[in-house]
Design goal:
The structure is a single chain. With 74 residues, the chain is an alpha+beta fold. It contains two helices and three strands, in the order αββαβ. The longest helix is centred in the N-terminal third of the chain and has 18 residues.
Length: 74
């Protein structure tokens, strides 16, 4: 399924907003992009718990097969 540019932008914005909500704004360098049909989430969080919250936020909006989390704990 091909998404139009406006749909892609809306999805990226929505996923980023949800992740910020779930992590209480504690994710650093958050970047969300769509590449070859997958939503790629990058960022850094202070704990494994925050990483789980970030993943939960993304997966509330994107099917797990279409999400590639690259969130590090530092």
């Amino acid at each position: 399924m091909m998404m139009h540019n406006t749909e892609t932008c809306a999805l990226v914005d929505t996923v980023a907003h949800r992740i910020r909500e779930r992590t209480y704004g504690r994710i650093r360098d958050l970047a969300v992009e769509v590449y070859q049909g997958k939503v790629i989430v990058r960022g850094s969080v202070p704990s494994h718990h925050m990483r789980q919250l970030a993943l939960q936020g993304a997966l509330e909006l994107v099917h797990s097969g279409n999400c590639e989390p690259m969130i590090t704990v530092s």
